[in-house]
């Protein structure tokens, strides 16, 4: 087994390699947890740890060199199978996810098309999933979610994006600026709606946080999908974070992340664990990126889906001030400030008029299913700030006070209460 580099890198090393600034964590990244299903959908992981076949003996490498190797990787062609699963410690979402995510219908009919990526992504918020992925440069990608009796695929080829659900025989189509805009902002490692689907996409997000509040080391080697790899370990230096450690297995030859594991500070199984079970860096067949709707398939264009989705959203919004529309306004509004920095940063959000986000004088304002979902992972707390409820997952936690403030972050319940006390 190769010698390990146990020395920590500085924040500057990671920032220089990835082109990010230390501790960048804008308030826009924090979502008020009534839409926790949306947060979960953006933090997918791979379940059972992939079997290793022994630790390879590789030349010694420093953490800085390994980060630079990831950043310098120019591999643009690959195909393979990725396993994904999530254990965020929240109740099963089922059809309820659609009613909690803004614009979701909960019945597979968002925007009139069950093939719409925004609708399908909620399925990745829990459980185990097998994905088949392929990429050929920045303009050609394919991600297929495999089921026992069906397959859902998102295919991008130039300025065309298709999504197809074989179970319902429905397709979704975007073209021109919409298609190229998705790809430009999210890259080939993600679905058109921005959800990571490969270890590389997860690694890019983690390395954005590699600043002064982060310890980055190399901790041995591994073999993933038949490839020799180094293990890069990222840990918060601060206390109070729900993140325990992030381990990224990096291909020793080409610098491509092959496996990503996020372990919560609370212990137990990984909350996020994503990795290839097989991978090939040869040029994929051109047919991987072509798609023609099967005969009889119902095709929905992106513009039509958007228009219908907006109408459905207006009809389904909660009437309470903390309904999805109100939360969207809060997340992008001026009443947001960030307490602390790095992994322990907490967003403080104040509701309009100081009204409690999840309460209303009118009974029935919050759908019973949604209230039951929220209550199932909420803890009542008190402090100098008054009283409120902490809604918790294994990663994202939020304190909603009875006087209309929200404190949310990748931090523990105690850290949220402390932040609320210090702000009062």
Which features does this protein show?
TATA-Binding Protein, outer membrane lipoprotein receptor (LolB), chain A, alpha+beta, twelve-stranded mixed β-sheet, about 425 residues, six-stranded antiparallel β-sheet, 18 strands, disordered N terminus, globular
Structure characterization notes:
With 424 residues, this protein is an alpha+beta fold. The chain has 2 domains: 11-309, Clam (outer membrane lipoprotein receptor (LolB), chain A), CATH 2.50.20.10; 317-422, TATA-Binding Protein (2-Layer Sandwich). The protein contains 11 helices and 18 strands. It has helices spanning 11-18, 36-41, 63-72, 96-100, 117-120, 177-186, 199-207, 302-316, 324-331, 368-375, 413-422, and strands at 77-86, 127-136, 140-146, 151-157, 160-165, 170-175, 214-224, 227-236, 243-251, 257-264, 272-280, 298-301, 336-339, 346-350, 378-383, 386-392, 397-401, 405-409. It has a 12-stranded mixed beta sheet with strand order 7-8-9-10-11-1-2-3-4-5-6-12. It has a 6-stranded antiparallel beta sheet with strand order 13-14-18-17-16-15, covered by helices on one side. Helix 1 (11-18) runs parallel beside helix 3 (63-72). The chain is globular and about 60 Å long. Residues 1-13, 15-53, 93-113, 180-189, 307-332 and 359-364 have low confidence and may be disordered.
